[in-house]
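Hi there,

I know you've been waiting on this one. I reran it after we fixed the sequence typo, so this is the corrected version. Both the input and the resulting structure follow.
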Amino acid sequence: MSITHCQHNKSSKPKSIILNIPVEVYIDICKYLPPIDLVTLSLVCKKFRQWLIAPSNFGTEQIWRTSRTNFLSSLRTPPPGISEQCYTFLHLIELGCQFCEAGKVDPRGALPTEAPAKIYWIFRVRCCRKCLTERVVTTNQIQEDQSVLDFALSGLPFLVQNNRPCIYWKKDVEDALREFASLDTKDIFNWQTENLLKLRQKNLIASYCNNVTRNEPWKKWHRKTKLRTVIHQLSMIVPNDANRTHLQVEVELRRCPTYKKYTMSCPNASSAMKLFNEHHWNQFQEIIHHEYNEKREYAALRARQYDLFLKVYSLIPSKYSMNDPIVQYLCHCPSFKKPPLNSWDNCLPWDNNFLDTKFIPQLAREAQEIANKRNHPPPITTTSGAQKIGLSSRCVFLCKLCVKGDEIVDKNICTDLFEYKNVRMHLRNFHGIKNIIDKKMIMTDFLEVGKQYLKRDSRVVCFFLPLYDDFYVY
């Protein structure tokens, strides 16, 4: 064997066997692939693209029709005048913009948060707003004689949005102007008539496809069913600390941030939910499960803190006064911020002996250390202290002029509680005071400060309490 022949054999690259299979076999294989895989396969090589994107090819139509029927069963049959491959391809919104791929969803990645691509059926494209703007033109932007424009554009598809000038696909305009310039005068009328008939057909197809895209009752029903299934499954496995009904647990699950984001609070995320695949649904369920556990731990912490707060409150005035550091700085004590929790089990009560002999004295020492610091925070029993911990908009403030003395000795006293701005308004309007001095004229209700700061009346901290079904309002 000659050296030249050996070198020739080494340099020649073996061709893939699949490129040599008959078209009929290839078509039979592709019938079992979902549409998104057909798109990927069409990008492998020119031959595959020719087989899968070939216009007016029965085999190509059959591949896409079978794939659509098997994997997109809710999608209606395309109307006459648009190919199966174009119709199905444009419906693959999870591929994002067909020009820049904005909004393309990773089938094994994070949850999609938006769906920026939109289908413009009149132009038969699926693209984002930016790519659309780059590829369309209005009559005001075309530098041509008006009479020429009237003829050339009369048969072109256009889009009208928000009563603005009609927009045309830029390439269509360029082709129409070039074709119009090459026509004889006697052929213009027939050319225009033919284009108007084509435009009418395109408008009918676009109208049908728009209705298919907008009216997706099956898909909407499927998403709602999937949401209910996810929440129901979670309600069966998450801890139920207060023996609530499954309905009550499900409502708590629906309050998780991710659930609310994808169902109420964020329109972009709500529209992105239609891009979820099975992986995304599993991830969605895991995230909600994690958020539920975080809420549970937070609720357990707040419930324990509230027990401590009530214990200190019960010792006023028998053991402590409102001026004692443990009362004034309780919320700032390290042991109060992170109390010992029994495996986050809030159903187990505190041991009174432990509280009286160990934990309360420890809190008293920590509060005294805080009080001895030069830059200590303002006491929570004062107006500035309540504001410091974020209670300005809560009804925890009292008018001192309406309460005798600086301390509320009788805990059952009936007085009006105000927000900070409202108690000042009360002082101005009711007492006629212009120069308000907070320290002398405004006080706080210690028990109410504790309730509001620890969110005792919120649904989050009621997490461990059995509730009646009518508590929930949908």
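Quick highlight: The chain is about 50% helix and 5% strand.

Best,
R. S.
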